[in-house]
Write a structure and sequence with these properties.
Elements (H helix, E strand, L loop, with lengths): L1 H6 L11 H12 L3 H7 L22
Length: about 60
């Protein structure tokens, strides 16, 4: 994600991935279990995550 955000310096960037990848990323950012998040994702769902620059692993999301 650091590379994507650095290469696209605008306030909003869309990243498209499979539900498993999205669940793992968002769960890590939010500090929650990924499986329940994955179960709740609708097909063609969208999640918004605020992103702040910093060292890898230092991101947080509400």
């Amino acid at each position: 994600m650091n590379a994507v955000m650095a290469a696209n310096p605008q306030p909003t960037v869309a990243v498209v991935a499979h539900g498993t990848v999205i669940s793992l990323l968002v769960a890590a950012l939010r500090g929650v279990e990924p499986y329940p998040l994955w179960q709740d994702l609708p097909l063609l769902g969208v999640l918004s995550v605020p992103w702040e620059p910093g060292p890898v692993g230092a991101r947080t999301a509400p």
